Amino acid sequence: MALAPATHAAPLGLERAPLPDALSSCRNRTLRDGAAAQRAADLLSKPEMSILRRNGSNAALAPCRKQKTNGEKSRLRPWHAALEGHRLAGSRRRGGCSRAIWLREATGAKNLCMAGGVALNCVANGRIAREAGFENIWIQPAAGDDGIAIGCAYYGYLALLKKQRSSVMQHAYLGVPYSDQDARAAADDWLVRLQTINTSSKDICRDTAKLLSQGHVFAWFQGRSEFGPRALGNRSILADPREAGMKDKLNNRVKHRQAFRPFAPVVLAERANEIFEGDEESPFMLLVKRVRPEWKEKIPAIVHVDGTARVQTVRQDQNERLYRLLKEFDAITGVPVLLNTSLNVKGEPIVETPADAVACFLGTGIDYLALHDTLLAKSAWHRIFAPLRSAYSEMSSVVQRGLAVEIRD
User: Fold this and answer.
1) Over the Cα atoms of the chain, what is R_g?
2) Are 210 and 243 in contact (CB under 8 A)?
3) Do residues 101 and 136 lie in contact, with contact meaning Cβ atoms separated by under 8 Å?
4) Phi, psi values for residue 37, rounded to 5°
5) Angle of CA points 282, 288, 291, to nearest 5°
């Protein structure tokens, strides 16, 4: 499996000039010994990993800690920058960008692949994309601890089994598929039917776009769930970004999070450059871009106080249904952008199953739920059942915590 750069579908492959001797030998040693990569990762996660060494044509990241070898004087041990440079050896954005520039100069690489928790810093990522000089930047969507599984699988498949790279990671929709029957079963539960009005939609994208343009808040459940911390249009809450008060509405009704935290836009990839500065695509919502001045007043709900937005771009071959929804919304409003945030409430994980989506819908102030091709709205009975359901949920939570304590003791 190969990793795709952000700007086109060709595998990354890390095209680069020959590595300096110190880096090349370190790369070969790491490929022979998987533990070396882990030791490098452990070292680079420490504060002392902040020194860049240059010795003529050789350049490497090195720890401040010295290591003695075979009676020699203590010396700094170099590590292969192309393998571990994605850690950027620091949390500060300015330092991260300067090290990315150094990495490009040291290796001659045209493409940069980033992973690790630091790669979830969208502001730093945006600066690296703009200023570091790489032709393509690709950021692993599950860049935190959950993405370690991908690294282990790649290492085993490519380095140990010596297999050829054969596929490209175009999207992060890797969760369990749920059938239309699963969706219908969740919607047809008798308690759910008492509280909802269910309609089978012949064109869920068109119907949803129309209701969104009228200011309604939507829960959007489609296809497989996303791998990683971002909701990328299959387990999302969607809303109209043209309404300045939409951010407060979402916080009051659903998210209940800090008022200063912005909501993100999802935009048609071919229109992104018209609205946001920069040509880089951002399919995994991991780049912050500046909103162009002429668009700030058109989509105020997704513009942060500094005039930026954490952008997700969508192409038809990445998520066809979300792409169609954006096209329909654009046809109605002239705006190819929607507000996109995760389908969950504060303190809860993003929903996974159809039943989870229905529970979140009924337990919050979301107006509609698009569950595959079924459109759910709340009935008058929901006002009666909602307080009872809330009380039952709180009582159940208390009982579960009590049982957990009893079992633990």
Assistant:
1) 24
2) no
3) no
4) -65, -40
5) 100
Q: Which residues of the chain have pLDDT under 70?
A: 1-95, 388-401, 404, 406, 408-409
Residue type, 17: A
Tokens of 341: 């945030």
Number of Cβ atoms within 10 Å of the Cβ of 134: 20
Residue-wise DSSP of 360-371? HHHTS---EEEE
| Position 247, amino acid | K
Containing 250, the helix (H) or strand (E) segment is helix 246-250
pLDDT reported for residue 389 = 64
DSSP track, 369-408: EEETTEEEEE-TTHHHHHHHHHHHHHHHHHHHHHHHHHHH
C-alpha 39, offset from chain centre:
27
Q: Measure the CA–CA gap between 363 and 216, rounded to whole angstroms.
A: 16
Query: 3-class SS at 317?
Result: coil
CA 252 to chain centre: 24
The reported pLDDT for the residue numbered 227 is 93
User: Residue 247 and residue 209: Cα distance in Å, rounded?
Assistant: 19
Packing angle between helix 354-362 and helix 382-408, nearest 10 degrees? 120
CA angle in degrees (0–180, nearest 5) for 256-259-260: 140
Q: What is the pLDDT of residue 168?
A: 81
Residue 127, helix vs strand vs coil? helix
Q: Report pLDDT for 167.
A: 78
Cα-based torsion angle of the residue sequence 320, 324, 327, 332 in order, rounded to the nearest 10 degrees: -160
Strands 2-3 and 168-169: parallel
Write down the residue that tokens 């911390």 correspond to. 229
Q: Can you give the pLDDT at residue 93?
A: 54
- H/E stretch holding 338 reads strand 337-342
Domains and CATH numbers, the chain: 2-67+74-169 (no CATH), 180-382 (3.90.870.20)
In this structure, the chain runs to a length of 409
Q: List the one residue out of 237, 235, 238 whose CA is nearest residue 176.
A: 235
Q: What are phi and psi of 375, to 5 degrees?
A: -105, 120
- Of all helices (H) and strands (E), which one includes residue 326? helix 320-333
Selection from 196, 117, 124 nearest residue 363 by Cα: 196
- Helix then strand then coil, in percent of the chain rounded to 5, is 40, 20, 40
Measured between alpha carbons, how far is 242 from 296 in angstroms, rounded to an integer?
10
